[in-house]
From TrEMBL:
Name under which the protein is recorded: Two-component system, NtrC family, response regulator HydG
Domain of life: Bacteria
Domain Sigma-54 factor interaction residues, every copy: 138-367
Presence of keyword Phosphoprotein: yes
Residue span(s) of domain Response regulatory: 3-117
Keywords tagged on the record: ATP-binding, Nucleotide-binding, Phosphoprotein, Transcription, Transcription regulation, Two-component regulatory system
PANTHER family on file: PROPIONATE CATABOLISM OPERON REGULATORY PROTEIN, TRANSCRIPTIONAL REGULATORY PROTEIN
Gene Ontology process terms (BP): phosphorelay signal transduction system; regulation of DNA-templated transcription
Organism of origin: Tangfeifania diversioriginum
Gene3D superfamilies xref list: 1.10.8.60, 3.40.50.2300, Homeodomain-like (1.10.10.60), P-loop containing nucleotide triphosphate hydrolases (3.40.50.300)
Sites of 4-aspartylphosphate modification: D52
């Protein structure tokens, strides 16, 4: 029986929602403040948390962070008045499952609960599939993909720290796991840390561990990430989100190669390779005073750049088919491929969420597909909207740059490049000649 926690300072409302959910067979607890909620979440596992967006003792956003930290698999449903819908949408970006406007409609509530439980099941089994091994790893054939592979092969066996730079969803964590797998540390742990998700008051204890009784709530000894990754690899995801203070502590550990758990006098030697990832320019963050230059250089002994999907057009359909195969086996379906309209739309789309976005779109479409091929009907409409394509030629000054970028993006395929530039092949040839743009052999 799924366990649900309701957090709302409106006592009557809490009791009504509790009664509705209990009638449908769920086991429900309710609390009226964040402080109480924290205690409950520490002690018990909940499949779903319903919480009000505005609570007297903390913001709903803070609460999402905390729940995601303590219980990453718990699905969070935000309850909100109409005035707060923008914030509610923001909460989904932060990891909430969905929001529901107040006053609640009982059918909507029960539907949402079922959806949240279904998704939680999906996520759990998929995580196992993805993380038990990297068998789903796919390299791509474009030039940027090939040089990424070359660099990964080169740096993996070395002890060098690696900084992986790329937009969200491009596969930074996947690349980090690949580096670990190809390193001499492959049979030791790979510990991934989402640097943005750790509440600041817990950072030291999470990284370095603590001893029992060192602060309220330290009910037993805790092993920190560094010790847990001993002999293996520590992956610091979104490293730009670490506070300045934590950056100092981290740098010290990396230089001195030992940690001191909170509340302990004992220094524990550590042997850990660090791989960090970021989707922002850390040198710019440094200029703004948010990131320490010394730590940047310590992490950036070698840099891997993962290009966004829109800049490796030749890989797009290969990845789409790769994800289709995965989705077929995951959903026990046998969809053959994508129809021509969908393929075209995939190539033209700008993929702001990169591989993660594509994987989700393909999985959903595979589930919905009725025939042998995925059609426009199963794909979100935004993929078919006319791109405000920044390749379009609008002035002489940007022409050379735009042509060069289009060529690079398409791996120097002139027909594809002409299509991106919205000119015909012949015009492209003329322009190449006119501007004296040469192509690699
Ligand atoms: N090389 C790859 N082959 C196959 N699938 C991949 C590859 N890289 C990434 N993916 C898929 O894309 C998803 C996103 O990858 P990953 O989590 O590594 O991205 P990320 O860049 O670390 O994202 P974020 O910046 O949001 O943390 C993964 O779940 C994985 O399924």
């Amino acid at each position: 029986m799924a366990k649900i926690l309701i957090i709302d300072d409106d006592v009557t409302f809490c009791l009504m929602l509790k009664a509705l959910l209990e009638k449908s067979g769920y086991k429900v607890s309710s609390v009226f403040s964040t402080a109480e909620a924290k205690r409950k979440i520490e002690k018990q596992n909940f499949e779903i948390v319903f919480t009000d967006l505005r609570l007297p003792d903390t913001s709903g956003m803070e609460l999402i962070k905390l729940i995601k930290k303590k219980a990453p698999k718990t699905q969070i449903i935000m309850m909100t008045g109409y005035a707060d819908i923008a914030t509610a949408i923001e909460s989904i970006k932060k990891g909430a499952f969905n929001y529901i406007p107040k006053p609640l409609n009982p059918d909507e509530v029960l539907n949402l609960v079922r959806e949240a439980l279904d998704q939680a099941e999906g996520v759990a089994s998929e995580e196992n599939q993805d993380y038990s091994s990297l068998s789903g790893y796919f390299e791509g054939v474009s030039r940027p993909a090939q040089s990424l592979k070359e660099y990964i092969d080169l740096v993996s066996p070395t002890p060098m720290s690696v900084l992986i730079v790329g937009e969200s969803g491009t596969g930074k964590e996947y690349a980090a796991r690949k580096v670990h797998e190809l390193s001499k540390r492959a049979d030791k742990p790979f510990v991934a840390v989402d640097c943005g998700a750790i509440p600041s008051e817990l950072v030291a204890s999470e990284f370095f561990g603590h001893v029992k009784g060192s602060f309220t709530g330290a009910i037993s000894d805790k092993t920190g990430y560094f010790e847990a990754a001993s002999g293996g690899t520590l992956f610091l995801d979104e490293v730009g989100n670490l506070s300045y203070n934590t950056q100092i502590q981290l740098l010290r550990v990396l230089q001195e190669r030992h940690v001191k758990p909170v509340g302990s006098n004992q220094e524990i030697p550590i042997d850990v390779r660090v791989i960090a990832a970021t989707n922002e320019d850390l040198l710019k963050a440094h200029e703004k005073g948010r990131f320490r230059e010394d730590l940047y250089h310590r992490l950036n002994e070698f840099q891997l750049n993962i290009p966004p999907l829109r800049e490796r057009k030749t890989d797009i359909l290969l990845y789409a088919n790769h994800f289709l195969e995965q989705a077929n086996s995951y959903l026990q379906k046998s969809v053959d491929g994508f129809d021509e309209n969908v393929e075209r739309a995939f190539i033209d789309y700008h993929w702001p969420g990169n591989l993660r976005e594509m994987k989700n779109i393909v999985k959903r479409a595979t589930l919905l597909a009725r025939g042998k091929f995925i059609t426009k009907k199963e794909i979100p409409a935004e993929l078919f909207k006319q791109n405000s394509d920044d390749f379009a030629l609008f002035s002489q000054t940007n022409e050379v740059q735009a042509i060069q970028r289009a060529l690079k993006t398409t791996d120097y395929n002139k027909s594809e490049a002409a299509r991106l530039l919205k000119i015909d092949r012949k015009t492209l040839y003329n322009k190449l000649k006119y501007y004296n743009i040469s192509l690699p052999d």
